[in-house]
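Here is one chain, start to finish.
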Amino acid sequence: MKLKKGVSTIVTVGVVVAAVIIVAGAFYLVPGLAPGSNTTTTATATATATATSTVISTGTVTSTVTTQKSTAPPTPHSMAVVLGGDETDLGFNYVAIQAADLIAQQYGWNVSITRDVQYSQQGSVITSLAQSGKYDLVWVVGNQFIGTTEAIANQSYKAGLKTYFAQTPSYWQKLTPNIVLLDQSFQVTGYYEAGVLAAKMTQTGSIGFIIGQWYPSQSMEFYAFVAGVNATNPSVKVYCTVAGTWSDATLGLQIAKTMIQNDHTDIIAQVADATGRGAFTAAQLYNATVPGTGAQVHVSVIGTVADQASLAPNNVMTSVLMNTTAFITAVVQHIDAGTWSQIGGQDLFMNLGSLSSYHNYSAVSSYTPYGIPASVQTYVSNIVAQVNAGTIKVQQEVTQNPPSGPV
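Its structure:
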């Protein structure tokens, strides 16, 4: 089953999630449940009073009496962040932690981060945070939480709790007004552009794509990447492997090695968090072989969510960035301004994907023969401009299962 829609089109995948929501709603809102792990840390920043934000004191003077009236600064808002991993992935969890730190520093929010929440614990962890009364916002980050977060928000709303919720990412569904979602299409444009670049740069005609787990957002990213490849060089094959986990770098290494040695892939894109770290190791250890000639060629990796060049400076061609900060900043600003009703109950469509710097690939030289030629950089820049202008429409394609062979 395939669903194709334009970049501004809502994609609804409801049957499975509906079942999850029913189960989550029935079992997760249990008073007194404690979080399943002790991985919560707190980052707090104190806001500086300014003439436009907080009045610390006012003074009134007469000829005979001086009075001083003091008002304490308002209590800062608080946010709990729930993650399925930690910052060591230098990816999805890493950029969420960066965004949370920015909220603490720039907006004066108290921020608590719970890392490495296992699937079996997610309901009790999110419920406990929501019921604690400590947090204005519970921000849940990760595909594995889809359905659970929405169900707990629903039950919290019915119970009269004042906590707001944000889920990154999810997809349109019937929502209570106390939750906002980031739509799963947030990175499709970045992956289309990465596909164009990869098709221009491959020497073997084979490209690999490693995914942690197959969710609608990963389906969209993969097929956007394939669309970019096909629009540039239809003869190039893209091999996709779903690891089934986001946290096994050894498995990621094995998958990448197989792609390089068996499928002749000389470029590997990865959307797999810690599992994807194995692809960077494989690219440093192995060369790809050009079919027919037997020539050995350099292997490159396309990072995900954050700029991952530091993981393998001579093997990271670029990364598809995710501007997570733009999403959570918009949510926080609405809470601060008292305008939550403008976003509550909505699935926000935000284009957060873009390509990072090319770093060591920014020029071809005797030291970097694998670099990106200036002509290719110009070509990709023109594609990016057309995507941003809406001239090129990136398709959103969702399939229940990944492809069984190269596409």
